[in-house]
Amino acid sequence: MVQMTMIEAIASAMDNAMAADEKVIVFGEDVGFFGGVFRCTAGLQKKYGSNRCFDTPISELGIVGAAIGMAAYGLKPCIEIQFADYMYPAYDQLVSESARLRYRSAGQFTCPMVVRMPTGGGIFGGQTHSQSPEALFTHVAGLKTVVPSNPRDAKGLLIAAIEDPDPVIFLEPKRLYNGPFDGHHTRAVTPWKKHALGEVDDGYFTLPLGRAKIHKEGSAVTILAYGTMVHVAEATLVETGIEGEIIDLRTLSPLDLDTIAQSVEKTGRCVVVHEATLTCGFGAELAALVQEHCFYHLEKPVMRVTGWDTPYPHAQEWDYFPGPKRLGRALIETMEV
Amino acid sequence: MVQMTMIEAIASAMDNAMAADEKVIVFGEDVGFFGGVFRCTAGLQKKYGSNRCFDTPISELGIVGAAIGMAAYGLKPCIEIQFADYMYPAYDQLVSESARLRYRSAGQFTCPMVVRMPTGGGIFGGQTHSQSPEALFTHVAGLKTVVPSNPRDAKGLLIAAIEDPDPVIFLEPKRLYNGPFDGHHTRAVTPWKKHALGEVDDGYFTLPLGRAKIHKEGSAVTILAYGTMVHVAEATLVETGIEGEIIDLRTLSPLDLDTIAQSVEKTGRCVVVHEATLTCGFGAELAALVQEHCFYHLEKPVMRVTGWDTPYPHAQEWDYFPGPKRLGRALIETMEV
Amino acid sequence: MSDNCENKHLELHIPEPEWRPGDTPDFSNVVIPKAGSVLRPPVDVDAQDIRDLAYTIIRVLDKNGNAVGDWGGLLGDEELIAGLRHMMTLRSYDARMQLAQRQGKTSFYMQHLGEEAISCAFGKALNKGDMNFPTYRQAGLLIADDYPLVDMMCQTFSNTGDPLKGRQMPVFYSARDHGFFSISGNLATQYIQAVGWAMASAISHDTKIAAAWVGDGATAENDFHAALVFASTYRAPVVLNVVNNQWAISTFQGVALGESGTFAARGHGFGIPSLRVDGNDYLAVYAVAKWAVERARANLGPTLVEYVTYRAGGHSTSDDPAAYRPKSESEQWPLGDPVLRLKNHLITKGAWSEERHEQAEAEILEIIMTAQKQAESLGTLNGDKIPSAHNIFEDVYARMPAHLRRQRQQCGV
Amino acid sequence: MSDNCENKHLELHIPEPEWRPGDTPDFSNVVIPKAGSVLRPPVDVDAQDIRDLAYTIIRVLDKNGNAVGDWGGLLGDEELIAGLRHMMTLRSYDARMQLAQRQGKTSFYMQHLGEEAISCAFGKALNKGDMNFPTYRQAGLLIADDYPLVDMMCQTFSNTGDPLKGRQMPVFYSARDHGFFSISGNLATQYIQAVGWAMASAISHDTKIAAAWVGDGATAENDFHAALVFASTYRAPVVLNVVNNQWAISTFQGVALGESGTFAARGHGFGIPSLRVDGNDYLAVYAVAKWAVERARANLGPTLVEYVTYRAGGHSTSDDPAAYRPKSESEQWPLGDPVLRLKNHLITKGAWSEERHEQAEAEILEIIMTAQKQAESLGTLNGDKIPSAHNIFEDVYARMPAHLRRQRQQCGV
Ligand SMILES: Cc1ncc(C[n+]2csc(CCOP(=O)(O)OP(=O)(O)O)c2C)c(N)n1
Ligand SMILES: Cc1ncc(C[n+]2csc(CCOP(=O)(O)OP(=O)(O)O)c2C)c(N)n1
Ligand SMILES: [Mg+2]
Ligand SMILES: [Mg+2]
C-alpha cells in the first residue's frame, strides 16, 4: 500500500496496464513528454517510449477516431480528452462509431478502449472547464460510464476499464484529484496523502465495473451520488446529523440497480445529487428508476439536487455548485414526515 | 384552410416566413434545387433565389457553425440536417456555441436560428436513419426543443420557432410526414389530406412554443407523448378501451409542466412513451418530474414505454418500435388497482 | 478600425452545375489528358515534386483500347479477365438487387453503375490482412476477394442467413476476414479510423496497411480533415481514397470542391503525395493503387488518390436523378464505361471476344441467380424469415448487462 | 488480395521538437527570407499563381530597422507610433494582469508576450462594422480599437463592472461594438462562424467583412476544415488568420503541422490565396492584413494568412513552459521582439527616441495603474464584489422560462 493522490493512482493504473499488456497505449493532447495538463500520464512516455505514449494534434475527433481504428486492429487505447468540455467534437465517433461497432458488425469488430476525461467544476473553470456530461454517455447504448470518487477506486476501476472488451467512458472529477473536496470551498481539503482512501495498492488490481459501493451506511434516507458529490454528501450528513446512507454509484452504466433498490426499500427516502444540469441529467434516470422499482416503499418523492439549468458560470461558481447547504435543505425536506 | 401533408405544412411555414422576413434563409444538404430528400424545402429556391435557399457541402458542423455566424450577424437561418442521426458532427456547435452565445456575451450576441431534422423510426432506416436524439438537446440549457405531431402544429410551431430569438431544435417525426402513423405497420395510414389535422391555414400563423396540448381528454390515466407516439397512444386507447388522457407535449423544452401536473393530479396514473432509448431518455425527466410534483396523487409508479437500450435495428424494427401492443400492456398494468 | 465605407456591395457566390434537367450536357471543353501521358514517379518521391499529379488524370487505356505509358503493363491477361469478370459480376449483382428491392424483398439498395473499376481493381492491389474502411459503394472489394455472393445477398435481404443478424441496412456489409471493415451509415467516420488502424499496425511493427474510402461530397466532413492531419503527422501507412463520382445525391461536386481545382489537391496542404486517376480505367486504377500501397508498405506514409468517375445511376433506390440532372449526362460523360473499356482492351489484345463476353455474361447471371435462390431460401425482409428479435439485445456489449436482460424479457424473446 | 508478405516491418513516426529542456536551441539553419524580398501581387491575383507565398515569410522591417520592399510604406509615422503604443499598452496590461492573477485577484490569465504585433496591426486594417472572431490571444484588437481598459480589467476580475456579468473566465472578452466576437473556450469553433458571418454580409449585400482567428495547434480541429470548405465554396468575404506561435501548450507546432511544410499551405487544397507573414513585424502584418481585407471587401473571396511568431511566455498562468522547452528558446527565436523592432524602426527613421520610448512606457503604466485602481474599486474575484447570482439565470434565453424562475427562487436570488 502506498499513499497516492487520485492523479498518481490514475497514472499508476495506466503504468500497470501498460506493463502488463503491450497492446495498451496512451495518447492525447499534451500527454506525452509533458505528462498531461493534470499530470495523469506523467512518466509514461519515458518508461514506455513514444511509440506507446504520445502527443496528438488538437483534434478530439482524431484522437477518438484513431483510437477506434486501433481498437479494431487489436490494440487497447486508453486516451485522454483534456477536459470533458472538449469531447463534443468527438461525440459522433463515440456515439455513432465506438458504441455500435460490435453490434453492427455482429461481433466481427470490437472497440476495447477507454476514454478518460476530467469533469466537474469547483476550480473556477467557467463554462468550458467545468461540465459534467455523463448523461450524454449514459443515454448511449454500447458505452459504459464510470466515475470514481477516490484514488483506490480510480485505480481499480481504470484497470478494469482498460481490460473491458467494450468502450468505457472514464470520468475523473478534477476537483478530487488532490483530495476529497466536500463543497466547502473556503476550507482546506485533507490531501489524499493523509486519507484512508488514498491508500492504494501499488500493483495491478481491478475493481469490477457495474457495482456500486455503500460509502456510508445509514437508515434514514438514501443519497445517490458519484464523484465529488460523494464527499459533499458525507459532509452534509455530518452537518445535518441525519443518519443517511450514501451510495457511491461508481459505474453509471451499467447501473447497479439492486444496491440502490435495496437501500431505498430500507430507508423509504431518496435524494439524488449531481453537478450536471438538472433537466435530463443522470438524476432524472435515477429518480425514474427509484420511483418505478421502489414505489411502494417511498415516503416522499425522490428529490434531485443538481447544477442549475444554465451554463456553468465563472464568478458565481459557489452559487451554482450543489454544495452541502443545498443538499442539506433537500435532505431535511425529504425527512419531513 | 387547405389540406396539407406534414411535408407541405413545413414547406409552407418556411415559405411564409421567408415572404414575411427577408432575413429568413434556408440551407442544408440537397435543400436547394432539389428541395430536400424529403421535399420539405421544395420550391423555395425557385421562389426566393439561391441567395436565400441553397445547397451546402456535406458538413453538418459547417451548416450549423455558419448558421450561428449568420444569426450573430442578424439573419434568421432555418437550416436542415438531413437526418437527426447526422447531427452529431455539429453537436459541439449546437451545445457549446449556439446554446451559450447569448449567455456568455451577456446578450451582445444572440443566435436566433432553427435547426430542422427528421427523427424517429418506422421506415426501415436502420441505426442511422431512425434515431430520436431529443434528450441530447433537452439536457442542454439554452436550446429549445420542439416536436410536432401533425401538419397544423408543424406549421404553426415552425413559424414560431423561426420568430423565436433563441436557437430552436425542430424535430420532425419522419414517419408522420404523410399521415398519422399509429404503429400498426401492416395497416395503411390515413393520408393527412383526408385528416382533420391536415387542415392547415395557408397563411402566416404561429402556435406558441412551450405549451402542451391535450390531444384527447380522459380521466383514467395520463399518457405523455410527442410526435409519432401521440398517434400510437390514440390507437392504443381505442384498442384497450381505456379512457386515457393523451397529452401531446409539442415543446419538450421549455416544458409545459402545469398541463402535465394538472392531468396527472386528475388521473392519478401516468405512462410516458417515446421511441428513443430508455436510459436517460426524455421519459426519465418526465417520470422524475411527475413523481416529484404529483407524488401524493399517484396510485402507481410512472411507467415508461420506449425504444430498447440498443442501437436501432433494421430487420427487427417492429420489435424495437414501441407500438400499441407494448403501450397497451403498460396501460393495463398501470390501471391495475 | 477606420470607418471608410465607400465600398461596393458584396454578393454571395453559389456554385451551380453547368446543366440541369432539360439542358444538353456538353463536356467538350473538359480537358482529358491523353492516356499514357503522365509519368510514373518512384514511390519514394517527395510530395512537393509531384504536385502536378493532383491536377491531371492518370490514364492507361486509350481510345483504341490499348494500354499505353508508364502506368500500364502490370497485369497479365488472366488477371485482366478476372478483373473484367469481377466488374461484370458486380454490375449484374447490382441489377438483381435493385430489382429485388423494387419487388419489396428488401428496404433499400445502392448500386455502383459506372464505378465498378475502382473497388474491383483496388482490391487486387492489397495483401491478405490489409484492411479497407469502405463506404457503401465499394462492394467490388468483396467480389474481387471472392466473398460469397450468397452472404452479400443475405445481408441485403436481412434474412436468417444475414451475417449481420438483420441489424444493418442493406449494403452495409462487414467482412473482417476479407479486409472489409463494417460500413457506417454516417459519412466519412471511417476515414480517420482507417488512419488509426494503420497507425496501430505501425505501432505493432506489423506489415499490414489500411485503405480509407470517401465520396467527393463527404470530403467536406470533419473526419476527412482529422484523417489528413493524423496521417500526415504520424506518416501512417494508409491509402486515402476519394471517389469523385461528380454527385452527392442531388448536389454536384462543385459544392464540395469550391475553388479547389481538384479533391486530390486537398492533400497538398498536408504534404501528402496526391494523385488523380481515371476511375473508369481498370488498369490505371490498379497501377495507382499499387503505387500507393507500395508506398505505405515501405513505411513511406500516406497517399491520397482521387478517382475521377461518374455515378451513372441514382444515389440509391430512394433517389431519382432525373429531378436534378439531365438524363443524358451519364452517356455524355467523357471517361466512358469501365466494363466496356476493359472488354475492348482485352479484345484488342486478342485475349477476349464478343462471344466469350456474352458467354461470361450468361455464366455470371446464372451464378447470381443461383446464389439469389439460395439466399431467398433463407428469407427476405418482407417475409417472415428474418433474424429473431433476440438479436436486438445481443452484441450491444460483450456480456449482456442486467438492464438489457430485463428489456429482452419484456420484449418476450 | 494477394498474400505476398515479404515486407519490412512498419514503424510509427512521432514528430519531436528539436530541443527539450537542457538542450541549447540553435535556429541557425532556419531560413528567414530577407525583408523586402517577397513581391506584392495584385489583390485579384489567382491563388495558383502565388503558391510560393505560403512557403516563404513576407517581411518589411530589416535588421537595421528599415522598412524595405513592396509591402512597406503603407503607414505614416503617426500611425506607427500609435501602433507602437498599442503594443506597449498590451504588454504592460498583460504584465499587470498576470501579476493580479498571482495575487489572487482572479482565477486565470493568458498573455500575448511576443505576439503583440499581430492583433494590434490587424485591427487597424479593418473598418468599423467588420467583425473579428478571435481566440484568447488577440486582445490587441480591443486595445487598437480603444476599447476601455477598465472594461477589460473588470472582465478579467469578474467584478460588478464586468460587462459579461461574471459568467466568463478571464480574457474571454466580448465587445460587439468594437468588432470583437464573444470568445469561446472551445478551440476553433468560431472559425466557421466567422465564415458564416461573412456569408451573411454577402447575402445581405452589405460591405462588412469578417476575420477568423485560430492558433497553430487548433488548425487540427474540425471547424478549421469546415471553414475552409465553406469559405472556398461560397467565396466568403473573410480573412482566415492562423497564428503560428510554435507551441500549443506543451506541444510543438510539428505535431499539428506534420509533413505539411506550413500552415499557410493548408489553404492551397481549397484554392484559397495563402500568405505567410512575419508576425513580429508590425508593418508586414499590417500590409498583409490590408491586402487580405481588400480582397474580401472587393468580393474576391477568402484569404488565408499564417503569422509566424513565438509564444514567449507560458500558455497561461496554469502553465510552466520550462517543463517542456529550453528556457533560452524564446531569446534565440530569430524573428525578434515586435515592440523592439517597431521602436527601432521609428528611431532609425528619426520619428522616435529612447527618451520618448521611456516616457511612453511610464505614461502607459500610469494609465494602466489608474484603470486598474478604477476596476478594482468595482471588485476582484477573491473579494465580495462579484456579480450577483441572479446573473446565473438570466440570458440563458431571451425570456426566462418557468423552470429557470423556479430554480432562481430555489437559489434564493
Ligand atoms: C454525416 C452524414 N451526413 C449526411 C448523410 C446523408 N447522405 C448519405 S449519402 C450522401 C451523399 C454522399 O455523397 P458522396 O460522398 O459524393 O458519395 P456517393 O454517394 O456519391 O458515393 C448524403 C448526404 C450521411 N449518411 N451522413
Ligand atoms: C476543443 C478544445 N480542445 C482542447 C482545448 C484545451 N486547450 C486550450 S488552449 C490549447 C492549445 C492551443 O494551442 P494553439 O491553437 O496553438 O493556440 P495558442 O495557445 O498557441 O495561442 C488547448 C489544447 C480547448 N480549449 N478546446
Ligand atoms: Mg459522390
Ligand atoms: Mg500556438
Secondary structure layout:
The complex is a heterotetramer, with 2 copies of chain A (337 residues) and 2 copies of chain C (413 residues).
Chain A: E1 2-3, H1 6-20, E2 24-28, H2 44-48, E3 53-55, H3 60-73, E4 76-80, H4 91-98, H5 101-104, E5 114-119, H6 134-138, E6 144-146, H7 151-163, E7 168-173, E8 199-200, E9 213-216, E10 222-225, H8 228-240, E11 245-248, E12 251-253, H9 257-267, E13 270-277, H10 282-293, E14 303-307, H11 317-320, H12 324-335
Parallel strand pairs in A: 2-3, 2-4, 4-5, 5-7, 6-7, 10-11, 10-13, 13-14
Antiparallel strand pairs in A: 1-8, 6-12, 9-11
Chain C: H1 77-102, H2 116-124, E1 131-133, H3 140-144, H4 149-157, H5 189-203, E2 210-215, H6 222-234, E3 238-244, E4 247-248, E5 251-252, H7 254-257, E6 274-278, H8 282-297, E7 303-308, H9 329-332, H10 338-348, H11 354-377, H12 402-411
Parallel strand pairs in C: 1-2, 2-3, 3-7, 6-7
Antiparallel strand pairs in C: 4-5
Helix pairs in contact in C: 1-2, 1-10, 1-11, 2-8, 4-11, 5-6
One magnesium ion is lined by residues 215-217, 245, 247-248, 311 of chain D.
Report on the architecture of this protein.
The complex is a heterotetramer, with two copies of chain A (about 325 residues) and two copies of chain C (about 425 residues). With about 325 residues, chain A is an alpha/beta fold. Chain A has two domains: about 200 residues, 3-Layer(aba) Sandwich (Rossmann fold); about 120 residues, Rossmann fold (3-Layer(aba) Sandwich), CATH 3.40.50. Chain A is built from twelve helices and 14 strands. In chain A, the strands form three sheets. A seven-stranded mixed sheet of chain A has the order 3-2-4-5-7-6-12, sandwiched between helices. In chain C, the strands form two sheets. In chain C, strands 1-2-3-7-6 form a five-stranded parallel sheet, sandwiched between helices. In chain C, strands 4-5 form a two-stranded antiparallel ribbon. Chain C starts with about 80 loop residues before the first helix and ends with a helix. Chains in contact: A-B, A-C, A-D, B-C, B-D, C-D. The interface between C and D is large, with 68 and 67 residues. One thiamine diphosphate sits at the interface of chains C and B.
